[in-house]
Amino acid sequence: GSVWRNMVERGDIVLQASDPELDRKIKQHAISSLIRVAVPSDLPIVQAETLLAQLYSNVLAQLGPQTDATIALTCSPDQPRRRQHYNCVILGGTFDHLHLGHKHLLCLAIWTIQPSGRLLLGLTTDEYLSQRSKTMANLILDYAKRDQQLRYFIKQIDPSVDFEILPINDAYGHAGRPDIDAIVVSTETQSSVDDLNSRRIREGVPPLEVVVANTIGLDQTDGAKLSSSWVRTRVDRRQRLESRWNVTMTNLGVDEDLATSQFSRLCSEYEAPGRFYHTLEHLDSMFAQFDQISSLHDRCVVEMSIWFHDLIYDVSKTDNEACSAALAISYCLQTGIAELIAKSSLIDKFILATTSHETDLASLNEASLSDLRSFLDIDLSILGKPAEEYIAYAKNIAREYRDVYSTKNFCQGRCRILQRILSKQRIFKSDEMFNRFEQQARANLALEIRSLSTGCLLNQNDNC
Fold this sequence. Notes:
alpha/beta; Rossmann fold; Catalytic domain of cyclic nucleotide phosphodiesterase 4b2b; three-stranded parallel β-sheet; 17 helices; 8 strands; elongated; Rossmann-like_a/b/a_fold; Cytidyltransferase-like domain-containing protein; Cyt_trans-like; catalytic activity; HD_phosphohydro
């Protein structure tokens, strides 16, 4: 009863699992809300896991892994106690940078315990992690921070849950305790339970019941999974971009507070739910190409154009470039830096040129025209990447448009765009980028056009 009252007082969103529009309503609220899905109190654990996995997978597919959504199961207080659930359940892990996959596991674990039951959370210590090989281990949050995030999350889901966080210093943690009834694991760690239960039996302790949570995939078609290492890669990318931004702004003499505020705005827009390609990863990739070009005449103009060119991105609108350019000009004026103000008109022209990717601007001198060619080529460099990278790009573009166009209309429209690009004498205007990317770009475009012309989106199984 207290949990239900707290939900009402906080204004939590409660949806019925039987609602035929459940997925649409979850997507509507998932960007920033805690969503509770009401189910029968005696819903079997297996069915609860299937429902949670489906809901989290749908949110991930529709809004992207940057979405900070939380979906939990609930039931009304007048329903009977849950049956077939456990008195003491354990769940262990590193829980670094808490993400949707962790939330799925934790919400399932909470559902598996009786109302008077107990949840044990094993949390790997910093010492234990230092002995293991982890991707970007330097970015793993320390024990205290991970402990804090877990406590906040559990209390947010159900303040009445009796839980304890226990440090883990070995592979088995505290799972050998005789008072534990069940363990919650992912499909990835399920195999380790056999050894654990064999060990319990040898020690005269009953084996644990096993509750398996399906892994939440980043991409349901190629098996990529959402993981803490993926999140750490994202953190590393943001830090790298922040360092670049700070160096540039410092060299220009921009006020530190203004620069910090603008970088936060950039990240907020490029990491917005619903973006799959036009993200910080796209910026990072563009800067990797930018750093390799030594022939630029005005690196500041090109760099600022890269930062702002996709700042506003709404697939249902046709003025994204104009809005992005306007924000770039506004920022240049806000800085009060004469150099940036003088360059703002050129930055505006560069960003607007991404609408058509044409360089026939009579108002530009030869140096600026050369820089514009390089900037537009950098933006299109993904077209000339290896086929595997191009396929991932094509799939992400399709995801961004899926709520605006039917698959048929999207295939027809994108096919026309790609055919127009392929019909050009040169896709890449600068000699340097032409030599590096032209041949592969034409092969990639032809591959996708063949797929789209049959009404099918390009997928990982296609090959050149």
